[in-house]
Amino acid sequence: MLHALAARLRAEWTRLRRAAASLDGQATFVLAFAALLVALQFILGDRGLFRRHLASFLPISWHGLASWGWWFGMQGLLGFVVPAIVLRALYADTLTEMGLGLGEWRLATVVAALYLPVVAVGTWVLSDGAAFQQQYPHYSPATQDWSVFLIYEALFLFYWIGWEYLWRGFVLFGTAPAFGLHAIFVQALPFAALHVTKPWPEALLSIVGGIALGALVWRCRSFWIAVPIHAAQMMLLDLWCTLRIRTGVSGIGLEAFLDLLGRVGG
What we know:
It contains twelve helices and no strands. The chain has helices spanning 2-22, 25-44, 47-53, 63-90, 95-98, 105-126, 130-135, 146-179, 183-193, 200-220, 226-247, 254-265. Helix 2 runs antiparallel to helix 8, helix 6 runs parallel beside helix 11 (226-247) and helix 9 runs antiparallel to helix 10.
């Protein structure tokens, strides 16, 4: 019986080694490393960790903004800086292979020019709701001080660069040699999974959005187009909510918009 069990284990070990040898090394590393980076972002980028262990080194007045800066900065570092360095060092010879080149920048510019006005109008409408004004920007003191607002949004932009490059850069271009067009769907899966705690319409739309953004980046051969497409939704919402809070303007029509501009200018 023991002899039969040992023989079975040896056979399984042989099968395991053959299966491992058949794996594409680059795709395997990229997917495993991306999972590690996500885990590290939630562990090391935790705002609570910053408040417990690092905030004491800063003036109290900086704690709130710095905690958000920590979260945003860690996403930018672990989502963009680290994977870009690793992909370049191990597998990619050019920026284009990493998704960091200009790619089809003319097409990307046209897409952005068509999409951003739609986002601007949509977020303007959403910002009229009290629930949105209570939620955005996440760091509420940014609504009262333009300097704080600009610092917060600059840090937020770094967050979006990290978020987008991890999926639409590192994973998409890192697995493309092995999976081809299927890499678009590979990068969309974890992207959608990370939205499961969001309201159900956003969670479902993340599936469509992840695939669409992946396809757009694939077509343009550059991840950069995904940054304004995705980041503008949140950053414009922050701007509209801030302006409404500062001016007290409500309504979604042209008259309300002109009233807001007049009060800001005044």
